[in-house]
C-alpha cells in the first residue's frame, strides 16, 4: 500500500482545512497549519507534555458536489447492482446539485430542503421521482454525519415523502 507521506513523518496535511493532523483511534487530532510546528507539537504530545485533545473535525467548507462525489465513491461497495444503482444515484444527486450550484454543505438547512421539494412539485415531477430525490439527499447527509464530514446533519426526515 502506498503512503502519501514518508513513514518517518507521522503528521498528515488536510488540504481543505490547511492544517496538519495525526490520527489516533480513528479520529483526527488537528495540530497547526505550520508543518515543522505540527511535528514538534506531535512529539510533545507523545512525551506527555501536551494533552492529546480529541478535536471534532473543524468545519470544512465543502460543496454539495464534493459531498455527493464522496458519498457515491464510498457507497458503491454496499450496492447489490453497482452499475444500475450508480446511474440512479448520479441522476438523483445531479438534479439536486443543478438546483443548488456552489452550495456549501454547512449552509444547507431543512428550510432549503423543503423549498426544493416544493419546487420539484411545482415543476410537476411525479411523486415517485420526488421521493427518490429526497431519499438520495437524505442518504448523502446521513453518510456525511456518520463519517464526520459534518458534525451534525440537518434533520431532513422532518420533510415527509409524497
Provide a concise account of the structure shown.
With about 160 residues, the protein is mostly helical. The chain contains 5 helices and 3 strands; from the N terminus they run βββααααα.
Give a written overview of the molecule.
This protein has helices spanning 35-47, 64-75, 82-99, 110-122, 127-146; strands at 12-14, 19-24, 27-30. The termini are far apart. It is built from five helices and three strands, in the order βββααααα. Strands 1-2-3 form a three-stranded antiparallel β-sheet, with helices on one face. The chain folds into two domains: 1-58, no CATH class; 64-158, DNA polymerase, domain 1 (Orthogonal Bundle). Residues 54-59 have low confidence and may be disordered. It is mainly α.
Shape: elongated
> What amount of the residues lies in strands?
5-15%
Largest sheet: 3 strands, antiparallel
Order of helices and strands: EEEHHHHH
Number of strands: 3
Strand order in space, largest sheet:
1-2-3
The name of the CATH architecture of the largest domain is Orthogonal Bundle
Helical fraction equals 40-55%
Question: What is the overall pLDDT average?
Answer: 81
Regions with little confidence, pLDDT below 50 for 5+ residues: 54-59
CATH level 4 superfamily of the largest domain = Tyrosine recombinase, N-terminal domain
Amino acid at each position: 500500500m502506498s503512503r502519501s507521506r514518508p513513514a518517518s513523518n507521522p503528521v498528515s496535511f488536510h488540504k481543505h482545512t490547511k492544517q496538519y493532523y495525526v490520527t489516533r483511534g480513528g479520529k483526527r487530532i488537528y495540530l497547526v497549519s505550520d508543518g515543522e510546528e505540527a511535528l514538534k507539537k506531535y512529539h510533545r504530545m507523545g512525551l506527555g507534555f501536551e494533552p492529546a485533545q480529541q478535536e471534532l473535525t473543524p468545519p470544512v467548507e465543502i460543496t454539495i458536489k464534493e459531498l455527493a462525489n464522496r458519498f457515491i465513491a464510498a457507497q458503491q461497495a454496499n450496492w447489490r447492482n453497482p452499475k444500475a444503482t450508480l446511474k440512479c444515484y448520479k441522476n438523483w444527486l445531479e438534479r439536486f446539485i443543478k438546483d443548488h450550484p456552489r452550495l456549501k454543505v454547512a449552509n444547507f438547512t431543512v428550510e432549503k430542503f423543503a423549498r426544493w421539494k416544493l419546487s420539484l412539485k411545482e415543476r410537476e415531477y411525479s411523486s415517485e421521482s420526488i421521493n427518490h430525490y429526497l431519499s438520495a439527499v437524505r442518504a448523502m447527509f446521513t453518510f456525511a454525519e456518520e463519517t464526520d464530514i459534518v458534525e451534525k446533519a440537518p434533520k431532513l426526515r422532518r420533510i415527509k415523502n409524497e
